[in-house]
Amino acid sequence: MSSGLIKSFPVIQVNKNGRQMVSDEVACEAACRFFIDRNLVATVSVSPADLEDYAIGHVVTDGFLAFKEIAGVNIDESEIHVHSKTGVAVGDRPSRHIPPIDSALQISERQVLSCAGSLSSFASHWQRTGGLHIAVLFNRHSELIRAAEDVGRHNAVDKVVGYAFKNGYNLSECFLLCSGRQPEDMVAKIARAGIPVVISRAATTDRGIALADKVGLTLIGFAREDHFTIYTHSGRLIKFSL
Known about the structure:
This protein is α/β, with parallel strands linked by helices. Helix content is about 25%, strand content about 35%. It has a domain at about 105-240: Cytidine Deaminase, domain 2 (3-Layer(aba) Sandwich). The chain contains 6 helices and 14 strands. The strands form 4 sheets. A 6-stranded mixed sheet has the order 9-8-10-11-12-13, with helices on both faces. A 4-stranded mixed sheet has the order 4-3-6-5, covered by helices on one side. The protein has a two-stranded antiparallel sheet with strand order 1-2. The chain starts with 5 loop residues before the first strand and ends with a strand.
């Protein structure tokens, strides 16, 4: 499987002056069958890079396994295999539970604005194709832990979460910056990872807000370098000093 995120294609661009043949860069995607202990759980569309990180993040944030239950990951052509230490059948697991977030993290409003304004600097492939989402994980001091781009906004989150678990980061001391919308399923994914703050350039939904409020997630949307909207748990944000 290719590890590249971009391919070039000859295309025809049309404007009011006519047609022009040019070379255009587009995002790559791979269709992978996803197995847990030999059980096929999904066929996923994912950018073909950082697939081990993706696999770890996916099984944790979708509620299949805790990180400590993962025995290993194998990537084989168009298949992703996650092996558990328990061997418990996926269908027998209570995978929908989302525990409350346990975190004393606080960040400043200035940090939110600064990180939101820096999003494009982590999105070099998006700038070239317009076809990728970006997720960026920071520690409490706004120091970069990991950035990932992917054709799927959920996948990008899975990749940074998987990297963080694999490298021993405490996600309750981190915050997440995303390019994509934050509906209920995305909020659930972030909450299962134990991340206490998510900052998005995009919108949320009523059910996303309801779940974030219930589990104790600070949900921020429409974030730019000069403004943002807080939907839930504003107490984690330190106000500007006058």
